[in-house]
């Protein structure tokens, strides 16, 4: 099966937003083994959209549209498809009720043009929108399938993953099992990782092995094809064992794991509570942990100590430490970790202090970070980073490194095997 | 002049990376007044690339390619264009020297296939690559112009901006000044905003008016054309005044402003310090403020009070308030704001408490949020939100609403006019 992804929206052609939807859908289709030969972006113009549809019908079996399902006159994806396929648009009562309830929950007045969003293509399967108003649609004709999805990624991504993908999976009814498995690394660069598995990258055909770096993390995707799931799984396990021999120490998780979700898993399993005192990251470490549901079981809270006074007066770091070693120092990071652990009564204390940039801070150049960790009754540990990114990249990297070092520490002390 | 942007690379179709190049180039072309009707992504396949070129030549005057200029066999953009236009590829000595020097700087050995990168289209203008190896090209025929750019954004962006754009500017030899101005709104939905300016959207041609919604924010982009900058500016000012009459209360800034940068501007201008006590947002509010350089002048710090115990014992919220009203309540949010302001000695205190989701919390359904604000000696204010997103969308929206309400409060009390 060949697919083509068509994004509709003049804002894309004006360069106001990036077509991240095509990336997301493509990676999902790759997992299903569906080939994508083209992405197209077209504006809110029914003639050009129609031409795009006709062309895509010549090149692909499956046409996936994002955008143009909203309430305004500019939104014309379903209208254009309806005209082209000679289908009526009919009001979907479920979708209308959903939209009315959405407005009630938001305490907003529903305007008449919002009703337009509940119109669906006659004969389609409705894909409910759990995170917005416009429902999606899947329509199949003799020759083609058409999937219509809303533009905002927050609505589109869960709709594709949980509504459209299972339907597609049935549609293609593949005999071949395609199994994908992602190994996640932190603390090793892409080039270094590739060097260590170069022969595998060059010679592996089943499973294939694909490295990808983003946001300071590196992943390896293993994709196996086989007639049975068991055999595909075995192929992946064998290759994974070989990869572990070489770079296993940098592995923190698999597939949809994130550093934060992995840390949560370990903390919950061992009933270890955690608190943090943050300076340069200003709450980003704790916010990252709290992004995972259920973190309340282990994350107690902490302090953001942006100024020296707050570090001393509220957190209780000794003035002498700061005077002698500076706010960006091993001593200060460790003292922050120890004090927050004691104050908040947790098993683990984390202290993060540094110069995020663009300017130097505490006598240290931009990018210098100290992470202090203390676990139960052990002596504190500290780790220095010398980051080279811009301010907010440095802040995010500092958070990821803090989680990475904490997971390592917990592994070294037998709280997890990974 | 009409342009089409063609990205070449199978990694895009596999969903490994996003086509951010198209966004960047589109926004640059918009500034030049060049219309973009399509973006296309095509894989490393010369037949499909050729078809894409032929189609684009029917639809546009200017074809801009990104990617496929590298050293490997997969890289075939210039080869395909050369064959199609019946042009030779010739070795560019300058580019070859640049490539050799690049390898010296990187302390790497130059392999033979890297020389391929110095091949250019006969008769083209070379666009030097200051951040990588493959040079770019601009080639003009009777009917079309072709710009070939490397794929990596850090090479492509400066090359487009500093090499290709000035050439394009001469090519179109535009006498017309094009001025763009973005007005930023918060606290109003896209549909509601459009309803209030519908007549302007329908009837305005110069300036044009384009709405865009993302991440809970709505913007209006005003684009004026004129022979003089002064006149273009006046056209924008006149339309902006009309927009302000209708929806001015929701405006928080312009162009590259963010809610956080605007808040910082107001706080610094008025020398107002701020602290926050955060529950469901767990530091995200303060981290968002700290994402702006120089926030240290006004952000003192705060607490993350994830559990009830910490709210009471560390922050000092009265147990009675929580027992009577619950942790997710107006009373609790206000008490958090008051207590952190007192404890940290700031002008402004912010308290955020809520149920981020997916589960209910503190007896309130997921999405219920209370924001407490206290400013100097005034009585506290509180605001309820009923959000409908997923956990982390709700957390981010809560942060944005907190900043939005704070900016409003500061405006109402004369600290800013916006």
Overview of this structure, please?
The structure is a homodimer of 418-residue chains. Chain A is α/β, with parallel strands linked by helices and 418 residues long. Chain A has 3 domains: 2-172, MoaB/Mog-like domain (Molybdenum Cofactor Biosythetic Enzyme, Chain A), CATH 3.40.980; 177-254, Alpha-Beta Plaits (2-Layer Sandwich), CATH 3.30.70.2860; 259-412, Maf protein (Alpha-Beta Complex). In chain A, 42% of the residues lie in helices and 24% in strands. Chain A contains 15 helices and 17 strands. Chain A has helices at residues 10-13, 20-32, 46-59, 77-85, 93-106, 153-172, 190-196, 198-203, 229-247, 259-269, 284-290, 308-315, 319-325, 330-344, 391-412, and strands at residues 2-8, 35-42, 62-66, 89-91, 119-121, 125-127, 136-140, 145-149, 177-185, 208-214, 217-226, 251-254, 274-278, 299-305, 348-354, 368-375, 381-386. A 6-stranded mixed beta sheet of chain A has the order 2-1-3-8-7-6, sandwiched between helices. In chain A, strands 14-13-15-16-17 form a 5-stranded mixed beta sheet. Chain A has a 4-stranded antiparallel beta sheet with strand order 10-11-9-12, covered by helices on one side. In chain A, a hairpin with a 2-residue loop joins strand 10 (208-214) and strand 11 (217-226). In chain A, helix 2 runs parallel beside helix 6 (153-172) and helix 3 (46-59) packs across helix 4 (77-85). The longest helix of chain A has 22 residues, at 391-412. The first copy, chain A, is globular. The two termini of chain A are 37 Å apart. The model of chain A has no long low-confidence stretch (mean pLDDT 92). At the A-B interface, helix 1, helix 2, strand 2, helix 3 and helix 5 of A face helix 2, strand 2, helix 3, helix 7 and strand 10 of B. Strand 14 (299-305) of chain A pairs antiparallel with strand 14 of chain B, so a sheet runs across the interface.
